[in-house]
Amino acid sequence: MGNLSSCFTGSSNTTHDEDVLPDETFTASSSGISGTTTSGKVLFSETSSSGNSGYSFGDNPSFGETIKLGPSGEILERPNLRVFSLAELKSATRNFKPETVLGEGGFGKVYKGWIDEKVAVPSKSGSKLAVAIKKLNSESMQGFEEWQSEVNFLGRLSHPNLVKLLGYCLEDKELLLVYEYLPKGSLENHLFKRISSMEPLSWERRMSIALGVAKGLAFLHCSERQVIYRDFKAANILLDANYDAKLSDFGLAKLGPSGGNSHVTTRIMGTYGYAAPEYVATGHLYVNSDVYGFGVVLLEMLAGLRALDMNRPSGQQNLVDWAKPYLSSKRRLRTIIDPRLEGQYSLKVAFELAQLTEKCLVSNPKARPCMREVVEVLQKIETIEDKQKENTTNSKRSTSANSERSGYHRRFPYHRNGILSQSQ
Ligand SMILES: Nc1ncnc2c1ncn2[C@@H]1O[C@H](COP(=O)(O)OP(=O)(O)O)[C@@H](O)[C@H]1O
Ligand SMILES: [Mg+2]
Fold this sequence. Notes:
Elements: E1 7-10, H1 21-28, E2 35-36, E3 42-44, E4 67-69, E5 73-75, E6 82-83, H2 86-92, E7 101-104, E8 108-116, E9 128-136, H3 144-154, E10 157-158, E11 165-171, E12 174-180, H4 187-192, H5 203-222, E13 227-228, E14 237-239, E15 245-247, E16 254-255, E17 264-265, E18 268-271, H6 277-282, E19 284-285, H7 289-303, H8 319-323, H9 330-336, H10 347-360, H11 371-405
Parallel strand pairs: 6-11
Antiparallel strand pairs: 1-18, 2-3, 4-5, 5-10, 7-8, 8-9, 9-12, 11-12, 13-16, 14-15, 17-19
Helix pairs in contact: 5-7, 5-11, 7-10, 10-11
Bound molecules: adenosine-5'-diphosphate (ADP) and magnesium ion (MG).
């Protein structure tokens, strides 16, 4: 959820505030699911007796059956979540021991814990599952709405590039969420925290992370009832053991416009440096406002620099303002690419990526590509890279064979010692 230290909240100059997903979700559904917590509070209430089973997002009557979206994503009819007791989560984290903290955002601290795995096979009972437990900080400006938003969205959306929410706890005013544990942590840590034990993320990994989260966003945007993520940033992208990327933190997620509207008007929330200019200026949130945030993260990965950094010289503190002009020239692009990536990419591919980044960052949300197009471009870039690798391997093979005969050496396609091959 928006990091409050760098997060902004404020009212838009419009009066139409739809930033109340939970109410929309629970009151408008044809038949909500019901559930109570151990503290007796009603979380999900029956809202109608229309006889339609299933609970829905917003005013969409009901998805009814489980909706499948593409081969890998689906919207579950109802959240399939476990209710945890506070005692269970205390014991999982050794009473929220500081040593178990994995990270912290605007909602509160996230702890690593171990819970009993509920398995079907009795002989396997007793095995423990690593989880991440997010606990509301009592001083946070966030609270029940953000918590409920995560339960509603993440509890029902299932996709390989979205983090899995396993359950929740609401007890004694404590709000907690329990997720699958992602061992490689956040993209933010990998890109910006100079930890000696951490290898810098390779070009290949950055590309696969970009494609992964692009697919996650495309899934949200292309669902029957569009979902706007609203807080796309490196800290909200988590990596599993294979560095596969997953979007986490649905605290600020919102349903997209309905009834032919192009945008929703809402309280302005998010994170400076990533939020789209039209949203910050007017409170008008478009599905494509997420595309802007995606462009900022692409730029961060390309440059290896944070979207905002007050420690940089003036004129360079805002990455987009500073680096955008460099994206349109192949020659100038080299100056802003993360030096840790030297030798790992071809300028041709980097330029393709720069052009995509530039398109995502245009001021007019309607002129930005949709996430499905972004996925296509990234897949095309992946294909170019695969071909280049293949060519390099083939040329190396033939070079070693030919060089013995003729001494011919094919030009290496990647830049060496910071000097880029013109052929790329
Ligand atoms: N499932 C998880 N596995 C590992 N680390 C996590 C997990 N969830 C969160 N974290 C860590 O905690 C940080 C804050 O989590 P986030 O969900 O963004 O919280 P907030 O809603 O407070 O912003 C992340 O940037 C990451 O470092
Ligand atoms: Mg967060």
